[in-house]
Amino acid sequence: MTLGAFHIIVKGNKTKYTFNYPDRNGETRNIMPDLTSVEPSLQPISEKIKEGDKVEFDIANGKAYNVRPVGSDWRGPEPDAGKDKMGDFHNPYNFIPTPSRENYVGDLGDGNPRGHHVYHEDCYSGRIRVKMTTVTPLIVPDTAKVDPNIEHKKYDPLLDEKGLPIVPPTSIKGMLRAAFEAVTNSRMGVFAGSYEIRSKREQRERRQEKEDVTAHIDESLLPATEMSQLSPADRVFGWVGQEGKAKSAYRGNLRVGHVRCLEDCPQKALDTFDDGLPLAILGQPKPQQGRFYMAQNTNGDPVGKGVDKEKAGYGGKNYLRGRKVYPHHGHLVVLDGYWDNPMEDRTQKAINGFFQEYRQPRANDEEQRTSQNRSITGWVRPKVAFEFDLWVDNLSKFELGALLWLLSLKENHCHRLGGAKPLGLGSVRLEIDRAQTQLATGQDMKARYQSLTDLDGGLWPKTADEENVIDGAIEAYKSAIASTNDKEFEKVSYIAAFRRAAKGYDNKLPVHYPRARQSNQQEGKPAPPNPNGESFKWFVFNEGDPNNRYCLPDIRKDAGLPILSPPKK
């Protein structure tokens, strides 16, 4: 967020508008606003804002976006008629906003990592004991056993010598990194193709040559190319330059230890399917889905219902919506029997209003096992517990607090892990075992090494008041996010969106990929999964009818999308 003063510049018969604002060095800068990204209450800008008035805005690509009154949230365009009407389903993926990081400083900004050569006095190191419990079935496949030459892939669960499920530490680290990136608005760890538009000069040249070459992505969010550009997630989890552009890498300051399954026998931990359970087909991004992936501004606001295809697509002045996320299917937790007897095809019969979305429907009473879907021979049951340690070194209070906040989300909030997340699998709860957590500052470590006595018999000295260390770090993280964004922590756009994804939707609509109503199905009635697939028809019907043209709703306000019917002849 930036605060600036409005000015009118008149040259001849032309009128231009600009904002004066102080940059991070205190120098006054001028910036032009994008007039398509001005709060409705300030439009038209020539009448609603007077010379010298103060406004708030975000900066991206050398322009002011999301222009709004001082102290208010960006509201976006005026709502469409019927916008709050309940839909029929939620899409399985959505996006967490990625506002510009251009003015971030301190803990949230870019900078060199601290290194591993010394325990810094004001930084924290030690062990965080974490308990992980599955909420929905978990798929961790043994990919090494799959024959790449077989068209239909069938995966066994990854098991240890006792037959208990294995969760690789790298999977845990990937899950945590994605979440940490989101809640600190860090740079993207990976972004394919970003370097072809790497510099601002190159971006300008590309747009001058052909305006619709690519959607605008903000440079402060692109992967770092040098050590001094590392964002919080890069410094904590590590960094490697993409596509050979960087000459160095950083190991990071977090390591995930062995993940232990706490069940005592395989039968308690696993459901197995000898013939293989055929999973529903997972969707892939396609050009016709631009309405779901594109935003009209840097705040991730949807392009708007009814906008024509060219304006809603990947070119022009659109932006990417943000970080892709698979919201928790919260309604499934209280839906009795949904995960029971998965080999039984219940896809065409609703139970308690919900169809069996995770299974591929049979066709002509035959299982569908094709190159488009996958089968599994087992999954980890719900309510199975695991335990692992996170070893950290030299984390700042802010970095530690962000990590601890992610490990202690509110009840009914979940992280997503493993395969088939769009189908509702892989929701897990994380909790800190405070009694088995040991954190110490560099100053504590120094005191231990200077002492001739073993402070607590462990590897790390236990801070005198561990509870206050944990709670204080979380509060430091929340305070930094709130002050940087100049609003309450819970109301910061990417925090609110992350919490919605972790909790799931409150309206208890089913979650599945868009699908069209089949010709023999009654309007207004629930539509089961189509055994023939054909999910593309929803996008055809959506694009073909100017009364439709739905975009993917903002995750924070998502009331669902409608199931569309074939056009009437």
Automatic annotation (TrEMBL):
<dbReference type="InterPro" id="IPR005537">
    <property type="entry name" value="RAMP_III_fam"/>
</dbReference>
<protein>
    <recommendedName>
        <fullName>CRISPR type III-associated protein domain-containing protein</fullName>
    </recommendedName>
</protein>
<dbReference type="Pfam" id="PF03787">
    <property type="entry name" value="RAMPs"/>
</dbReference>
<keyword id="KW-0051">Antiviral defense</keyword>
<dbReference type="InterPro" id="IPR023825">
    <property type="entry name" value="CRISPR-assoc_RAMP_BGP1436"/>
</dbReference>
<feature type="domain" description="CRISPR type III-associated protein">
    <location>
        <begin position="131"/>
        <end position="429"/>
    </location>
</feature>
<dbReference type="GO" id="GO:0051607">
    <property type="term" value="P:defense response to virus"/>
</dbReference>
<feature type="region of interest" description="Disordered">
    <location>
        <begin position="513"/>
        <end position="536"/>
    </location>
</feature>
